[in-house]
Amino acid sequence: MSSDPGSIVRGDPSTYPDWFRDHKPRSNLTVARWVPIALVGLPVATLLAIVIYPTIWMFYHALHDTNMMRLFQENWNFVGFQNFQIVLTSDRFWGSVEHLGLYLLFGACLQVALGTALALILYELVKNNLLRTLILIILVLPMMMSPSIVGVLWRFLLTPSNGAVNHALLNLGLISEHIEWFNAGISLWSIIIADVWNWTALPLLIVFSGRVSLPPAVYEAARVDGASGWQVMRRITLPMLKEVIAIAFIVRFMDAFKFVDLVYIMTSGGPAQSSELPAYIAFQRGIREFEIGEAAAYAIIIFLISAILITLFLKYLKKVLKAQGIA
Question: Is the dihedral of CA 123, 124, 125, 127 positive or negative?
Answer without folding.
Answer: positive
